[in-house]
Amino acid sequence: MASYVALLRGVNVGGVRLAMADLRSAVADCGHTDVATYVQSGNVVLTASGRRSPVRLAAEIRAAIAARAGIEPRVVVLRAAEWDDLVDGNPYPHVTDGTRLHAVVAQEPFTDAQRRAALEIAEHVREGGSRDELTIRGRVAYLHLPDGMGRSVLAEKLGRSRASGHQDATARNWRTVLALQEMLHR
Fold it and tell me: What is the pTM of this model?
């Protein structure tokens, strides 16, 4: 059973390419075991050697990828128990289409100012007729996007805003969230 999930942002999009075999090797070269990847966007489960904080582990993985591939993606790391809490904390359990629900995961909990800014954006788009919903819990923003990510005014406005501040954050659809949880518990 793996002990951490690492989510990379900026891998295999916009011309930046990193083979998953190279990603697995970079993480394993740090001394980690049980390294597995899921889809090409940079999702990694691993068992860390020694006890490390998620912030320290994220920095270590970023440095290993930079050394191996010359790119420095944003990396967000959660302990397996935190990932389970993320799944259990889903405020939209009625959503059965895993492409209509997304988790935006930040390395640190959202501040009150970031939370307020995001909720103001959500309220503004609802007033404009959007069906999109947003719930923020700790360092996870759950987005229910009934019309899909590509048609979401909320996702687009949040992406352009400074609501997430300058911290590392990345989004995954619920199908990927559940697949990573399954990988953690193999």
Answer: 0.91
